[in-house]
């Protein structure tokens, strides 16, 4: 891993709280991600994810501290993500950091989005300069049967590609700077309310 200093976490997982999404993250995505990224490094890869399904499960200061001292943001995109002030705070914190350090293209972005649920108008609403999502729409399954299915092999290959991209970007991270902005929950506002027509409909994987 790159010699950048001043961080506590390598990766921050940003998602809108939902029991089904959390189950997928805990059972498949995060463990697989850690194993694959770890294969590139000798020191431990540290990933932050708030596994409390209720807001306030982890103190706010702890989440903000993890956000401030993480190298890369992985947003898990689903329509409710774009109306969440918390998710917006996390997204905009890294968006503003990119601006401060002068990252100007998708291939250098500190945000590496995963499109888990259809967000068809993402590019139109978020703008051309927003990072291009990795498509994981077909892989939002859980359980033993899923892990024995043919499409699980595709998921595994997609995770290999994601780990390679992450390792490359982690190696390019510069040292942490205490002056980098942290966008608060109160100041963030929703990323794009128009992209969330069914905010109160539970997500089913």
User: Into which percentage range does the β-strand content fall?
Assistant: 5-15%
- Low-confidence segments: 197-204
Radius of gyration: 16 Å
Strand order of the largest sheet: 2-1-3-4-5
From the spread of the alpha carbons, the general shape counts as: globular
Helix content: 25-40%
Q: Total number of helical segments?
A: 7
- The H-and-E topology, N to C, reads as EHEHEHEHEHHH
The separation of the N and C termini measures 33 Å
What can be said about this structure in brief?
The protein is an alpha/beta fold. It has helices spanning 19-38, 60-68, 85-101, 122-126, 144-147, 150-170, 185-188, and strands spanning 9-14, 47-48, 70-77, 114-115, 134-135.
Task: Reconstruct the topology from this structure.
Blueprint lengths: L8 E6 L4 H20 L8 E2 L11 H9 L1 E8 L7 H17 L12 E2 L6 H5 L7 E2 L8 H4 L2 H21 L14 H4 L17
Parallel strand pairs: 1-2, 1-3, 3-4, 4-5
How would you describe this protein?
With 205 residues, the chain is an alpha/beta fold. Helices cover 39% and strands 10% of the residues. A five-stranded parallel β-sheet has the order 2-1-3-4-5. Helix 1 links the parallel strand 1 and strand 2. The C terminus is likely disordered.
Properties at a glance:
alpha/beta, single chain, 7 helices, five-stranded parallel β-sheet, 205 residues
